[in-house]
Amino acid sequence: MKNILAVDFDGTIVENDYPLMGKPIADAIETLLELQSMGYALMLWTCREDSLLAVAVEYCEGNGLVFDSVNENMVFDSRKPFANYYIDDRNIGGMPDWKTIKELLTPAGYLVE
Q1: pLDDT tens across 70-83, in order?
Q2: CB of 75 within 8 A of CB of 45?
Q3: CATH number of 4-105
Q4: How far apart are CA 13 and CA 19, in angstroms?
Q5: Which of the 8 DSSP states describes residue 14?
Q6: Closest alpha carbon to 89 in 4, 3, 1, 13
Q7: Cα separation of 65 and 32, whole Å?
Q8: 10: phi then psi, degrees, rounded to nearest 5
Q9: pLDDT by position in tens, the chain (length 113)
């Protein structure tokens, strides 16, 4: 099974301006594409719903990023998202920059199975 990354949208991929679309956060899309190419499965996990969710998905897809799952668990049928790692601006201690995230999730950091 691939390692799963659950990724928030507002404040994580784009600056938090919810419900509007925030400005892109540097290196977010590029890093996620690299992690996906390394074998990670990506789940977009966001509070956005309906048309607001569609805008977020369209933004990502327009930048070449297609998630393996959008607001749906990939393994279990549960309200709580299952992932091996969670990337969210609401982390305790704050969110590291995307360069640091990439370093943590590459073979020099956590090994991809």
Answers
A1: 999 999 888 888 99
A2: no
A3: 3.40.50.1000
A4: 14
A5: B
A6: 13
A7: 8
A8: -70, 125
A9: 789 999 999 999 999 999 999 999 999 999 999 999 999 999 999 999 999 999 999 999 999 999 999 999 999 888 888 999 999 999 998 999 999 999 999 875 555 55
Structure tokens at 106: 């590459």
Residue that is written with structure tokens 């400005």 in the block: 23
Could you count the other beta carbons within 10 Å of the beta carbon of residue 49?
9
Specify the amino acid at residue 33. Answer: L
User: What is the SS3 string spanning 57-107?
Assistant: HHHHHHCCCCCCEECCCCCCCCCCCCCCEEECCCCCCCCCCHHHHHHHHCC
C-alpha to C-alpha distance for 60 and 13, rounded to whole angstroms: 9
